[in-house]
């Protein structure tokens, strides 16, 4: 065979394949284009509804006073979960630096392989001591803690009874378990009792509630919940992300506030809010449960260990709270100062005495526009709307910090009054 014929014979299959590849690529591009059109349509609908969530860029450390890209001067921050002002506390920051120097940036491993350092065990011990529980297990976030608990604890013969307004992470965690799921009306003890009666044939029953509901700042009726749980042979679980560190006489949380620490069996909470604000979550409870979570909880088994600087910061935050309740005690007066002044000005503030102070507006677009106008007046707040809150219940959620001064609070109220009058919310 001549060289020319050999070349032609080699080329034939290539020519046969190329059209097929071209057709496959065309279909692939068409599928991607169709998907892009669907996604763009969804995004357009969010913008049209006025529920688009833009991310403002902060150019400083977290605190009551921050710098925001595109804004002049210092901005007062009234929407962080930095309840105790510990995110930039000098002792907390220094503890993170020391942990970074001593233990490195990270473990590059999950806990059970080579990702457990003595500082992880030390923090777990301190958190168990803080909550007065037997043991503690750390997670990358409280979302992970909620995702990892229920499928380990509950099986198909069990029942879980959940408040209808529980946090999304609780809802998603419950979806992963095979237990019978019963949802009771928000903080409705009569409906909870009906559901407990319905679950009497189950092997185990677990009542699940947020200690504080983050969108409204309302506190779960734990005394009544615990009494019903005891009457019907159920355990009680609470998520304390918006309570740990500052509710109760010593800042232990909702269960301490309401005098039921010895009646609540399992507590999940976060390191990412009052306890330094970096990252991380945890479960505290009976030691057999914690031991089983270490063996079977998927977010724990398949996620890297918390980085040493994060653990160092959180440990120092917990130590500060174990040593003194002074910071936690300062919250009540500041919270009531804001709530009372806003109510007197004519605004509707949801919740009770919690530092979460939702300024109820109803309309999503109005909440977004007012938040933008507040920023122009030097106050950083964010509008919350569907799907974060139910439709028709848009609000600006204000959060008071122990680091805010009375002058900060008064300036925030004055800005709300000016903005509220501009948009016809108050007269």
List the helices and strands and how they pair.
Blueprint: H1 3-48, E1 65-66, E2 75-77, H2 90-103, H3 111-114, H4 118-131, E3 135-139, H5 142-153, E4 159-163, H6 168-175, E5 180-184, H7 189-198, E6 205-210, E7 212-213, E8 218-219, H8 222-231, E9 235-239, H9 254-257, E10 266-270, E11 281-285, H10 287-296, H11 298-301, H12 308-323, H13 326-329, H14 331-345, E12 356-362, H15 364-376, E13 379-380, E14 383-384, E15 394-399, H16 406-422
Parallel strand pairs: 2-13, 4-5, 4-6, 6-9, 9-10
Antiparallel strand pairs: 1-2, 3-11, 7-8, 10-11, 12-15, 14-15
CATH architecture of the largest domain: 3-Layer(aba) Sandwich
Count of helix runs: 16
Mean pLDDT: 93
- For the record, the CATH class of the largest domain is Alpha Beta
Family: Belongs to the class-II pyridoxal-phosphate-dependent aminotransferase family.
Enzyme class: transferase
Organism: Parambassis ranga
Keywords: Acyltransferase, Ligase, Pyridoxal phosphate, Transferase, Transit peptide
Describe this entry's structure for a reader.
With 427 residues, the protein is α/β, with parallel strands linked by helices. It has 16 helices and 15 strands. The strands form four sheets. A seven-stranded mixed β-sheet has the order 3-11-10-9-6-4-5, with helices on both faces. Strands 1-2-13 form a three-stranded mixed β-sheet. The longest helix has 46 residues, at 3-48. 45% of the residues are buried. Its EC number is 2.3.1.29. This is 2-amino-3-ketobutyrate coenzyme A ligase, mitochondrial.
Descriptive tags:
427 residues, alpha/beta, Aspartate Aminotransferase, domain 1, Aspartate Aminotransferase, domain 2, 2 domains, seven-stranded mixed β-sheet, three-stranded mixed β-sheet, 16 helices, 15 strands
């Amino acid at each position: 065979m001549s060289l020319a014929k050999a070349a032609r014979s080699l080329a034939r299959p290539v020519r046969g394949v190329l059209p097929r590849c071209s057709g496959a690529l065309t279909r692939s591009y068409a599928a991607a284009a169709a998907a892009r059109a669907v996604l763009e349509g969804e995004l357009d609908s969010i913008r049209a509804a006025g529920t688009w969530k833009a991310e403002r860029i902060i150019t400083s450390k977290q605190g009551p006073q921050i710098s925001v890209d595109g804004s002049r001067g210092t901005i007062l921050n009234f929407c962080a979960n930095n309840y105790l002002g510990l995110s930039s506390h000098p002792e907390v920051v220094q503890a993170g630096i020391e942990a970074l120097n001593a233990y490195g940036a990270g473990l590059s491993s999950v806990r059970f392989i080579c990702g457990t350092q003595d500082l992880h065990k030390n923090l777990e011990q301190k958190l168990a001591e803080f909550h007065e529980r037997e043991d503690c297990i750390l997670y990358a976030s409280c979302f992970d803690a909620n995702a990892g608990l229920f499928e380990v604890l509950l099986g198909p013969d069990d029942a879980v009874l959940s408040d209808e307004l529980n946090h999304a992470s609780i809802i998603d965690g419950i979806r992963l378990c095979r237990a019978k799921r019963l949802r009771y009306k928000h903080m409705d003890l009569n409906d909870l009792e009906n559901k407990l009666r319905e679950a009497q044939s189950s092997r185990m029953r677990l009542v699940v509630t947020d200690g504080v509901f983050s969108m409204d700042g309302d506190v779960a009726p734990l005394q009544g919940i615990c009494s019903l749980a005891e009457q019907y042979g159920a355990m009680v679980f609470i998520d304390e992300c918006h309570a740990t560190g500052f509710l109760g006489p010593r800042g232990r949380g909702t269960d301490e506030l309401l005098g039921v620490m010895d009646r609540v069996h399992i507590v999940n909470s976060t390191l990412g809010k009052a306890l330094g604000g970096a990252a991380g979550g945890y479960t505290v409870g009976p030691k057999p449960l914690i031991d089983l979570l270490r063996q079977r909880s998927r977010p724990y088994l398949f996620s890297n260990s918390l980085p040493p600087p994060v653990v160092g910061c959180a440990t120092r935050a917990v130590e500060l709270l174990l040593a003194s309740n002074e910071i936690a005690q300062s919250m009540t007066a500041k919270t009531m100062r804001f709530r009372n002044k806003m109510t007197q000005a004519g605004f509707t503030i949801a919740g009770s005495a919690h530092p979460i102070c939702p300024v109820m507006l109803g309309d999503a677009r109005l909440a977004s526009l007012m938040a933008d106008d507040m920023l122009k007046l030097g106050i950083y707040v964010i509008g919350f709307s569907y799907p974060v809150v139910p439709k028709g219940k848009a609000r600006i959620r204000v959060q008071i910090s122990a680091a805010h001064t009375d002058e900060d609070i008064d300036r925030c109220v004055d800005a709300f009054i000016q903005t509220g009058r501009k948009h016809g919310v108050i007269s």
